[in-house]
Design a protein that fits this description.
By secondary structure, the protein is α+β, with helices and mostly antiparallel strands. The protein contains 6 helices and 7 strands, in the order ααβββαβββαβαα. The longest helix has about 40 residues.
Amino acid sequence: MGGIKLDGKPKKFKFALDLKKLSKTEQKLFDSLPVTQQAEFVGLGKGSKIDFDTPSFVTSPGEHVIAKGNAGIVLGQDRPSNIYSGYGGLKNTHCASIDLVAGRLGYRARSTMPDGTGVNVDPNFKLDAARIYISQKADPDGYFGLAKGKSGSTSKESPRSTVAMKADTVRLVARENIKLITRTDAENAQGGDLDTGFTAPFGIDLIAMNDDSGLQPMVKGDNLVKLLKTMLESIHDLRELFKNFLDYDRTLTMALMNHTHQSPFFGASTSPSFVNLMPEAVKAVVNKLTNVELQLNLQMQKMTTTQQEYLETPAGSETVDDDGNGLYILSKFNNTN
């Protein structure tokens, strides 16, 4: 690629019009022009911009290229890099491809080096600015350097047809809805059977930072709600059981407060123990009432509120927080299986 450096840290600042990509001859010519002709040189006014930022694409025999400036569509065979790469380079059959690219080499692009040497480029799945790649037979995970994930991945030994998109940002916009659907057919484009006995390859992985080390299965929201409601009901049941214990214990405590013994004097009953038992028993009854039974009622109210806020939408009405965000844990719009 004519000596262009492909490594280094990304630039934090870049001129909208990067004249540093001019060769020395072009720069000298540009500097010699009056202001009006300089404006035409860069495409302002009535002029059309000189393509000093457009490298020449290396075309493989059998490819048909439609190009304007540094944007192009290549119709040909699977080719992620030089003319010997991919399944087209291996001369495989059934590997037709369509490569739509805007901005080959990204901000590094230039038509010539400072010494005037022309810059020729192959497809570069890492540096090209934006691409939609369609191939009948390809290894997209290998071409783009993607993490394997849990739902299967491609390799040189296990190619697939693909539609791959890469850019700084990708937006899929629908006026109504978007569906991500897998396993629509009984075999893939290579003729391989898609057996549902092992379903992992048919899933959908959402991988941030191209790092699948912490990838975990998604939670089914409806089932999670059922589980949480069951847990809350179990806690309510435990509360009722503990309340029953308090009632039984209160009865026992009251009995102990008023219990008497038969004295040795003709079997007469003794008076209750007011010295130790009576004060402690009264204290225990009061503490259980204030610190346990009343707190159980408050805890029940708290659990009921939590259930209503996060797990229920009565009549479609959702509880919101102070910022106006809904608290219901299920999405109104998005679903997964």
